[in-house]
Amino acid sequence: ISKLYLINKKEKVRASKSIFTLFFIIFTLGIMFGLSMIGLTVFIGLDYYNLDLSFITLMVSLFALFNGLSRPLFGFIYDKIKLKYSVILISLITLFISSSYIFFNPSSAFMFVVTIALSWGTVGGWLSMMPIITRDLFGQNNFNRTYGKMYLSYGVAAIIGNLYTSILIDQSISLSIIFIPIMIISILIILSMFVIKIRLAKQ
Fold it and tell me: Taking the model in full, what pTM does it have?
């Protein structure tokens, strides 16, 4: 992954190849969760919550709206609380969703709407923050070449997410088990934001 990152010599960049690799992985895992939940929306609604297909279909429009609105929302949030805390916030949302299914076994239609809407929203949030984070880490002069390669994480997330959801549906695995790796990944991303020193290309 680190070989994808090439520095423009005209600009002094503080972010290293290891930072590029870290955020490539973070974007991949973060987006993968949201895409997996999008793929599992009907399955979760029918098999886990025993909801009517007509209700789920109606809610999908709401989820899509939430996905769209989350993009300017997270852009605004990023402007206010900057890189580290924006990543921590969106990871906390994922942690809340995964913890809900692991520890509280939600069964109401309200929790279906809340958890799935937030899941769809995380995809929009990550896609909104990805170009801004790439610019802030690697500089404006490096943005064009770096963001194109960073955006590959979305493609990787789509492939992994589809495989993940396909296996889960085929094997009829319990949702509480499905969300254990998601919870662990969310915790690791949050911890990485506290542990790793991140210096922006432009302060």
Answer: 0.89
